[in-house]
Input
Amino acid sequence: MSGSASASGAAPCRFAHYFVVCGIDTETGLEPDELAALYQWLEADLHGRDPDTAATGENFEQSPLKRTFKSKVLAHYPENVEWNPFDQDAVNMLCMPKGLSFRTQADQREPRFHSFIITKEDGSRTYGFVHTFYEEVTSPQICSAMQTLYQMHNAEHVSANPSSSSSSSSSSSMDSLASSLDEADSPSPPTSSSSSSSRGGGGYDASRDTLYVSKALCLITPMPFMHACRSFLSQLHRAVTDASGPPPLPLESYVHNILYEVPLPPPGRSLKFHGVYEPVACQRPGPGELPLAEFPLGDAFSLLGAENLVQLFTCTLLEMQILLYSQDYHRLMTVAEGITTLLFPFQWQHVYVPILPASLLHFLDAPVPYLMGLQSKEGTDRSKLELPQEANLCFVDIDNHCIELPEDFPQFPNKGEFIQEISDVLLRFGLSPNGGVPPRTLTLTGAPANPGSGPSTPGRQRKAAALRELEDDGRNGNLAGEELAVLELLQGNATLERLQALAKRTGVTVARVDALRAGVKGQAPEGHGGRTASEEEELRNAKLNVQLREVFASRFTTMFADYEAFVIQSAPDLESWLTNREQMHNFDKASFLSDQPEPYLPFLSHFIETQMFATFIDNKIMSQWEEKEPLLRVFDGRIDKARLYNVRAPSLRSSNYQRCTILRESAQAIEQRLMKIDHTAIHPHLLDMKIGQGKYEQGFFPKLQADVLNAGPTNNNRWSHRTATAQRRKDRHRQQTEHLTLDNDLKERYMQEARSLGKNLRQPKLSDLSPAVIAQTNWKFVEGLLKECRMKTKRMLVEKMGREAVELGHGEANITGLEENTLIASLCDLLERIWSHGLQVKQGKSALWSHLLHYQAREEKLEQQQAESPVSAGPERRKSESAIGMPSIRVSVIQDMRHIQSMSEIKTEVGRARAWIRLSLEKKLLSQHLKQLLSRQALTKKLYKRYAFLRCEEEKEQFLFHLLSLNAVDYFCFTSVFTTIMIPYRAVIIPIKKLSNAMTTSNPWVCVSGELGDSGVMQIPKNVLEMTFDSAFRPHTHISAMFKCQNLGKLTTVQLGHDNSGLLAKWLVDCVMVRNEITGHTYKFPCGRWLGKGVDDGSLERVLIGELVVPSAEEDSGRGCRTPPLQRSPSQTRRISITSLTGRGYKPTSAQIQEAIGEAVNNIIKHFHKPEKERGSLTILLCGESGLVGALEQFFHNGFKSARLFQKTVFVWDFVEKAVAYMESADQMGDLQETAEPLGMTCQSLCRYVNAINSTPRNIGKDGKFQLLVCLGARDRLLPQWLPLLVECPVILRMYEDSALLRDRSTVNALISVLETLHDFPITLETSLVKGIDL
Output
């Protein structure tokens, strides 16, 4: 499927590498399966039982027919192939994943077919195809041994107390796995009770029962020619069981032929070779086509349905942990190979074990992405299957046609249209897209196989079902293998209904179909063009496969049509690229994402972070210096072809769905190859054999003669000679290039390291399974997790700091909120995997949350004990007073857990764990909290096995250190994600320190606004005046109030006011502090002004702009450093009223004022150039310090005559009001009639706005009114039009000096042109600013 084709290309191109026979070794007799014993030993060790009693592997409680006995490789031919060394243990284990199984004549003994795959360390693959059948046991020793075991079992069963055999509490994640697998191959019929040892219970009595044992014939091939191998093996088995006598030639002739005389078909060609009874054909795709994949995708879709399969496909692309679960090995293999085939042009880069032998169950503990298949036992409930890690697991229950998905996972782009296109292909081949139909169920009855599927009307359903059954029945040559048009023509045919009714009346059944399927001709009439039914089916499968794969491939061709433009080619040569691979930035992710349609982003931002995408880009970069990787070559070819037809240009950035256009051609290419065979291999022939050996005995597969099968024919063979010369040519070329480039071994090592970057462990070793090897594997996992943690935290830091650098004015941004969210989600996933490595006790699906709950229970118990005992508790860590009047927040793991537990919006354990991680990250406490959690070593020992990551001291310390580095940046990953939760806030109003001014008799109110909304006006009761003392014991009074409201996000403004009642109605406020009680973020809203009539500017309410308070040094000491704050907001000094500043000697120069205006406008424009979700608060840019309002205030104040005439301060607003009064009077006298029409309109608009602001019921002061006018003018694009009016107004001569900026015509024109640049952007104002304004 993946690189296997290229891997075997170098090897001499033989169709099969090995022929293997596995079964019982009569010499050694019945041996308990050692691997199962090892597994029991590990389990016993884990539970503190004595491992030695378990190590014998004898389990007397289990019926002997159900126990696992050791199978052996009885023979394999040839002895060894140098380019693919024979791995005896792995092959034995995968041919018979559960060891030998025994049956009696009362049990079912149908032959079974399954396949397997062996992935080598370098990722290359070898395929195995296995035909398993039952053979009568003739050895009296084995029969008597089985009889003895039964007697012991019965004796044990009678003496044992029935209740004691029930298992004790099974909290272990692996216990139930073991039990579910023990009896999966239940030999007794499902009706019988397995506990009874009577005859009905599947017992064995040598005197009257015949004993059968499983035997497996296996072909090991470099490429997945499944149909050909299945047909060849079933013919070989039929040769020894056929009642009509021995086969035409000795079996050795056929085996020798397939091993040595049948070549691989050349790319783009087909080949026919001969089995025992009939020819076998196979074909291989050409260089521009999708690589070979014969596993029937139709079956995978029939089992799971199109929607489920697309969801599983998405999980695979996002490299989650995927566990397939089925009773049937072949189904496991079909779904696993099917799903990895569909990944083209990408390849699965992690652990891949489609059939996980029982002895390898500890691999489910692997803290890495994996795709594994687990055999289930009949009647085993999914709920009984406890798995070590489920937070990121996609569980696929194939037999029950359902899947369980991980939480929060993004949908595949255009999923609906995509599923529709797949469904159309399936329907054309007569398959239901809804799944739940086991493949090949054939009963010619009236009801469709799946009542819920297909078109809506019952009549059409029946027709479709009849059609599907007729087509599935390969004998109807008129339908199988037809052009699709014929099928469509027949869809509405009434004849079919009559035909179906007739079939029903006459009781026609289709009993021979399974025999046909197994490749047996029987008396089947020949199909289309002389093809047999099995050939028809093979052709149909091949056409369906290629069309489904084309639909999937075309999605990637559209999605990544321009990927090359974003590949960063930074290295001059391969060597320097390989050595610096880890530091290199190979793909411009931010630009790529910004070029994609919005709906694709959630999926793509995750996908481009995966290992399979990284490897794909690596292959692209390496193709500058090396031959292109085959999948990449095909993919690039398709993109070039699409460009040639100019498919992409008009649809750039559009998310319109484009259907695949080459379905018909792709199916025709395969059909032509199979109809017209290009090559025929040499026929099997008599070999030079010893007479009399391996004589034919019906029903028994004989011992073949090794001497003729271990050596190939002498090289008189055309194709082997050809490949030998090609091989020599290749060797010569390689030797020449070796001298030119770096030393080949070194290069190979670099390549392997570069390719395995970020992969922890590619493949488990199936052969050597001593505890030492398991320990070694776990050690690799620990190292891999640590490396992954280092890389993830580094990436998060670099991206985040890069972005903050941009906001502080350096360089280009390279992270989006979407990307940040993806990185944090992947950190959550990594923590879950670390917490589930080596786990032995777990509650629920999340390993991390389970640990936290255990910790919480223990801590709460300790608290209770301390509360009961009078001894004082140890000092508890509190945050120091971050601000005057704010009581400290307690820093504790438990406190943050309680916040999360009280959030009713989060329903699952995985969700709670993720929320807790986000909250800790936002509070900069993640490393500290986890350190606290792991400091309870007794708890960690109880929950984790010795080899677990969390029990490796040094690695654990390094891991916590990497997490600590994240404290260097600010994350709002909790506040920005949980936007609907209720959050308690504390607001504290701090008056200026003179006690007399601190008192007020009026009723204050406050309204807090943030990026997500506002709290509404909250009245503050008068009697909440509190007094606190600072470190020098000076008293401070303040008003403090707690309120709870829906998450406001980052806080932006506070409106503060009072009702002016009572004697002491004037109030001098220093600032307002507001704190989010969950995240601990504290915001300061400086004021420094009076609220009251007849004082300052007469305002009874003010809008204050907030800034995030930087934690003090000692408070932050435990949490690392941090970056400078992103936005400063108005400092207290400016807010003391610009007007009174003139008397303080602070006068900015005209150049500084103009620069400040330019800077303020620039910041607003930058704001709109950011992605919408990351813009932050516009209010701060308008009204905050160095905001637009402040800059314009300074402009208007330059040269303003604000001398205190009779002790009354004059404000800029006074000038605006006088100018408006002048315009209105001039308008009434008709002076303005002569002016141009637009100017008159502008004049009216200015008057209208100023009057609206003056008539608002709110008591905002004069500075507040000026602020409002500037904000409304910016919003409605009127500021540049109003300025000339104010400049022309004669009032200016009275109120401004000659040198004032406002009287300098060129400066005013420059200001107008700067303000006009804001017209391109939609400025929206917070409701807190414009409340009560009626325009």
About this structure: The mean pLDDT is 74.
